[in-house]
Amino acid sequence: MEKMQKLHFIISVAMALFIAVLLSASSTNLVSASNTPRPFKKHHLHYYVQLDTRSPGISLKFIPPINTTLSANFGAGTLFALNVTKDVEPTSKRLGTVRGYTVETSYLGFPDSALLEVAMVEYDDGKYNGTLQLQGLASQQLTELAVKGGSGSFRGVHGYLVVTLVVDHLPTRTFRHDVTFFVKMHS
Ligand SMILES: *[C@@H]1O[C@H](CO)[C@@H](O)[C@H](O)[C@H]1NC(C)=O
Ligand SMILES: *[C@@H]1O[C@H](CO)[C@@H](O)[C@H](O)[C@H]1NC(C)=O
Ligand SMILES: *[C@@H]1O[C@H](CO)[C@@H](O)[C@H](O)[C@H]1NC(C)=O
């Protein structure tokens, strides 16, 4: 009889532990679900970047060139923090920012400019929310940057983006970013 009671006790302790484990597992699921933005699984994304030369969001004097007599603009750095919008108009819905810098890596000067660009897009359209990490060579004609990863909705992404100047009315310049994501081999 005593043996039966002991067994009964052990079984109820085991059940209680099992339920506790289930509860804690489901509560972590709930917490992580609400903190994790929906993964971006489409192949294309586009948005517009608004440059206003009157705003404090761009500094051409971030880093001066090393020696303009010897090597043109070599070493000159530009720092920027620009608004990202849904449509071409600067007043259209704001989706985030693009922050980064370019450094002149050509010592030959214009038109042989070769700007190394490193930037980060913060994107939040209400459905997808996260960052994209960009790297590449920026030029007047065509700028194609590699998308080297991201966070939030864009965790683990890879791809490229093409920058097109669509409005060139100083003090306003508007760029369109067309992002193409590569299909994930596994996820
Ligand atoms: C970005 O947009 C906000 C309004 O949405 C504006 O106040 C701010 O000046 C803009 N920033 C730049 C760098 O243009
Ligand atoms: C820039 O380079 C030239 C040519 O080598 C040199 O004569 C000059 O002193 C340099 N200027 C500075 C500010 O270093
Ligand atoms: C988007 O993500 C950022 C960074 O994690 C967070 O601060 C922000 O609240 C998120 N926006 C929404 C609408 O959830």
UniProtKB/TrEMBL annotation:
InterPro entries: Allene_oxi_cyc_Dirigent, Dirigent. The keyword Signal applies. It holds the Pfam family Dirigent. Gene3D superfamilies: Allene oxide cyclase-like. GO terms for biological process: phenylpropanoid biosynthetic process. Its main location: secreted. Keywords: Apoplast, Secreted, Signal. GO terms for cellular component: apoplast. It is found in: Secreted, Extracellular space, Apoplast. Dirigent proteins impart stereoselectivity on the phenoxy radical-coupling reaction, yielding optically active lignans from two molecules of coniferyl alcohol in the biosynthesis of lignans, flavonolignans, and alkaloids and thus plays a central role in plant secondary metabolism. Belongs to the plant dirigent protein family. Homodimer. This is Dirigent protein.
